[in-house]
């Protein structure tokens, strides 16, 4: 049954996001990825909606995605990309790359679905080169005391079942600050209104793997 659900979610993923992309999510992706360069890894690449937004400064692009159904669509999109990105099926918690492999790592709206987001951040830090940069865009739990935060908590389980394992109330900013990465920039933003109140609070920014001492 989970495989059937995964295939169904992969089939509707792009149509589901089409309105969001037109309403401003594409612009946020461009902003997030503008600083990418050199050998770059995207973690949880989904169906490849970030592909068109990577700048020319990216010299090699590797796309990892844990769900085979999503990876099938990702490969199809990657085939049309002139950079010939590599597609790897792997969870963010166990990236199959040596230490210090990439100058840039990116992830967009994926820590909400990761079984262990803290472990994903540890892996991102591991595969980044010293002073390498992690570029992120994630929806997050609203500020404590906001009505939205209480609704995110109440509706977490049904929303997760509906939205492919997405948890709307993750404290991702706190996870970033407690990770091996050093937060360089973290802006609190709002996703396009069409996203709905549960997933509108978001963060965008960058973090760096500290230089080795």
Would you give an account of this structure?
With 213 residues, this protein is of the alpha/beta class. It has one domain (2-208): Vaccinia Virus protein VP39 (Rossmann fold), CATH 3.40.50.150. Helices cover 36% and strands 25% of the residues. The chain has 6 helices and 7 strands. A 7-stranded mixed sheet has the order 3-2-1-4-5-7-6. It is globular, with a radius of gyration of 16 Å.
Features:
seven-stranded mixed beta sheet, 7 strands, Rossmann fold
Question: Helix and strand succession?
Answer: HEEHEEHEHHHEE
Largest sheet: 7 strands, mixed
Strand order of the largest sheet: 3-2-1-4-5-7-6
Q: State mean pLDDT (0 to 100 scale).
A: 93
Structural class: alpha/beta
Question: What helical percentage do the residues reach?
Answer: 25-40%
The CATH class assignment is Alpha Beta
First and last CA, distance: 49 Å
Total helical elements: 6
| Percent in strands | 25-35%
CATH fold description = Rossmann fold
What would CATH call the architecture? 3-Layer(aba) Sandwich
Counted up, domains total 1
CATH-defined superfamily: Vaccinia Virus protein VP39
Number of strands: 7
The shape, in one word, is globular
Radius of gyration: 16 Å
Question: Segments where pLDDT lies below 50 for 5+ residues?
Answer: none
